[in-house]
Specification:
The complex is a heterotrimer of chains A (380), B (501) and C (256). With 380 residues, chain A is an alpha+beta fold. Chain A has one domain (3-362): Aminohydrolase, N-terminal nucleophile (Ntn) domain (Glutamine Phosphoribosylpyrophosphate, subunit 1, domain 1, 4-Layer Sandwich), CATH 3.60.20.10. Chain A has helices at residues 3-8, 36-44, 78-91, 131-145, 167-173, 220-228, 239-253, 258-265, 270-273, 278-291, 337-343, and strands at residues 18-27, 33-34, 54-59, 69-75, 92-99, 113-121, 149-153, 158-163, 180-181, 183-191, 204-206, 209-215, 300-306, 309-314, 323-327, 330-334, 349-351, 359-362. In chain A, helix 6 packs across helix 7. Chain B has two domains: 9-95, 2-Layer Sandwich (Alpha-Beta Plaits), CATH 3.30.70; 137-142 and 168-498, Aldolase class I (TIM Barrel), CATH 3.20.20. In chain B, helix 5 (229-234) links the parallel strand 11 (216-220) and strand 12. The termini of chain B are far apart. The chains are: A alpha+beta (380), B alpha/beta (501), C alpha/beta (256).
Amino acid sequence: MDHWKHVNNPYDDDKVIDACGLFGMMDTSGRRFSGVDAITAISNMHERGNGLGGGFAVYGLYPQYAKHYAFHVMYLDEAARQEAEALLQDGFRVALAEPVPTRKTHGIQDPPLVWRYFLQVRAQNGQKLSHDDYVLEKVMQINTGVRHAFVFSSGKNMAVFKGVGYPEDIANYFRLEEYQGYLWTAHSRFPTNTPGWWGGAHPFNVLDWTVIHNGEISSYGINRRYLEMFGYHCTMQTDTEVIAYAVDLLMRRHKLPIEVVAEVLAAPLWSRIEREDEERAAFHTTLRQVYGSLLLNGPFSVVIAHQGEMIGLTDRIRLRPLTAATKGDMLFLSSEESAIRLVCPQLDTAWTPMGGEPIVGSLNRPLGKREPVAAALAAT
Amino acid sequence: MKSYLPPRFVIDRDAERCIGCQVCVRQCSFDAHAYDGEDDEVRSYEENCVGCHRCAVFCPTQALNIRLNPLSYRPNANWRPEIIEDIIRQSESGGVLLTGMGNDKSYRVYWDHLLLNASQVTNPSIDPLREPMELRTYLGRKPDMVELDPASLSLKTQLAPQVAIDLPVLFSAMSYGAVNLNVQESLARAAAEAGTLFNCGEGGLHRKLHKYADNAIVQVASGRFGVHPEYLEAARFIEIKIGQGAKPGIGGHLPGGKVTQDVAETRMIPAGTDALSPAPQHDIYSIEDLSQLIYALKEATNYTKPICVKIAAVHNSAAIASGIVRAGADIVALDGLRGATGAAPKIIRDNVGIPIELAIAAVDTRLREEGIRNQASIIAAGGLRNSADVLKAIALGADAVYIATAALIALGCTVCQQCHTGKCAWGICTTDPILSKRINPDMGARRLVNLLRGWSLEIKEMLGGMGINALESLRGNRLHLRGVGLTDRELDVMGVRLAGR
Amino acid sequence: MTVDTPSQRGLAVRIDANGFHYRELNRLIREAVAKGAERIDLHGVYGQRYIATNLRSGAEIHIHGTPGNDLGAFLDGSRLTVYGNAQDGCGNTMNDGEIIVHGRAGDIAGLSARGGRIFIREDVGYRAGIHMKEYEGKRPALVIGGTAQDFLGEYMAGGILVVLGLTLNGGNGHTASFVGTGMHGGVIYLRGQINDYQLGREVGISQPNRKDRAILSELVTQFAGHFGFNAEEILAGRFVKLFPLYLRPYGRLYTY
């Protein structure tokens, strides 16, 4: 099992280390739009990557299969595909199976086979577990059990496209200009110890969560061990994987809202908590006492997305950059402001959020003409 | 019977420097110096010298030097001098050889084979003097998740009681009787000033120290000395002592000579009698009994204080710790092979137990594998010597550490291992009223606070170097450790990689 | 790129930066300066880094768009004007010259600056003015029209930081924490409300005296001139002076 560990981390380092560029844009009214701007923006931040990884997450791109789990799977060979598809047929009703359309692109070498499947959980199989947990289990099963097969996207009406290459080349390879979505995130990668492995690029996906991440988490060792106690297998040995599982645990399983999750991952300092009123101080103290092992220490900025929401967050002493901006219904998040300006020169607002302060774009709260709402529970 | 034992030490007195002031005579509590009135000379009685350095430190002209007696035995890797002399001593007394302080044998010190990480390039180090660096630690049982009221988003979860300490170092148990009240008061004051706790050990909590209750840990040990409702009320948390690293599995024996009137009053036994702590706690013969006692104490304190269970680190520590956590303990204290004591049989001190480094790793790993690591905090003890040892213990999995030997060294102890005689010349491990005065709580507290302050600053520097600004991010984070000069199996048990890998 | 040689005195050059990699763009700028250009207009700047790095000329460079990180790093004498926002590292280790930003700047503005002046019309991010230095005649100044985020003036060793708070609404005070942490030289003049707990342990707070007022007047007048504000109105506001309490704030740290 865990053979991808050796591919992802061939020198068996403590973990995969990378530095990167992030971009995200979301139309909070739900209107779908082309990926051209996201692609332009992430390519503009060329310096932040080194061509060894690029990726995109798109939400709302498969409206005709909105109720199906959309699996994107990469295979290193045909045999892997046969084996994986047998497993999928076994557990799911397969509405459609086809290769993801691509075009030959200079800069994309030795791509794996990439197929997509639109699946529904067979009634009898989902009995003991919720459908989501069943899908999680099946994805784990394929990723750890089928040699040379890797499921890298498995949410509903959303998908990840990624690989080894500059993001603009990945976008061109996967013909991303042909898709429409209401939320796009993009990532440009600069790995230090994982050459050439398509699965190692960001975004990292679990169910409909995607995470793109810039920075290195010094608390990784304990974050991972803590998550393993709750049944997560950290096969990729990346910070991004740990962040995705942390968000899945806290938001999906423990049902905490994003504002509270931000206060776990980027916990307020004791010096600040001490100045709060009694109730809030007790609340924040409890969060740190219970979830101390999930504090993400070290520099990070992340853009996390799931159905209906895009979230930007930086570490509590803001060691990595993140600029937020709005224009009408559109919310932008970017490592550098210039990338936003390039695709949208006139902005309504542009600012850098404080360390630990989440910026949330939500279909439930379209921006319209209103001021953007930073996390409701954040103290000012 | 004439003793066949040669003196352990030789006292060099520089005749030119000696001014005959007799400070050494007055300071030595072992009668190694005496003044000969007729010859107007200070003489040495080396057979009494224990090598505690009190005389050498206080001699105003540095006229004294203490050396190991160079009387040579024929080299013998098996029959080492100490082993030969133990047999001689035993054959002259017919008793169990007693000693004090911790295991001094050359079992591997794993701390000296573990190295800490530092951030370079891919992750910035953090500047602890200018940017926030958080050492605060909460000891107590934690739930797996928090529950919020869905409408108001306010907290529904009620946490079990937590105890906050400002740095991850606490003073370990040293009982009144093993040490004197001045030492305990020094520890109490220093704990209060530094924002941590002191453990009053199994001798009860003297009235005078009740005002430091906010910083006190009280013990419920096998002798149940001084355990009464006020005592339980006084504490920040209560420690059920099953065992200690210096003497796993056996009871305690405070010699009658150290049981003064005051000690007697606090322990509620007759003065001059030996204070006996039974080997087991007589109401704990199995794990479910432990659970019973834990909940008895929780009931007695109305569930307002965490209950800690202290065990010596032994062969099945992982399984035992798991049982203790499931029995309801909020904190588990592990005391390793090198833990110190006021008195213990030498053969047990030196041959029973396992090193704390391996125990922490084994317990932390086991609790995580069973998914119950959140349910109790782990405090590690047993010969931790400096701030690097503290951080290594935390990286292996401890929430905090206990120190005792280091604290006593701060007060003047030179680890001469004579605590069991009650004649400590430094005034530490003695209840003799005259000797006890040699510890002034004002100065003692100051020295201890200095120690904790120095360690605190060092810990912050090292954490910052690793790119971490909150201690919880290092706890159990084995990736920040590497081993050198260890076997693969040793590395495996600790979950630590070889340096370079 | 279009090169104009207008009839007016002084060679002026216009460069359309769109699509240019920073290496090419900066080469063009250096070439233009070598040829004697006294004014260079850059248009369509989106994220190109290191613009005017180490530039020593007396040239004026006007930047339209959003320059990338490290604008004017190691700047040694030119004057840069940005019509838009600047990103991180603006004036990084600057030695001389002037940077004027009609907008915001990102993190570490003026990091380790040793001379010259930076004027930012609006807010800045984290660690503005970190480790600024000064020596005898060389005294850098960073003037921020709005407010700053945390670690403002972190271990300043010299220089002048001015924060005017003009973007704060109504009675709102500055919200930065750890202001001046590690400060052991230099001075910060802050207009607007700030609390004790927001300051580093090494920072003292007092009222500006006559000499301070003179310095402030000069800098605020320059600021007002660049951005069209009324200097008197700004100077009439309530200023505090933040200064280092100790020359050796960590003298008691080490044991020999």
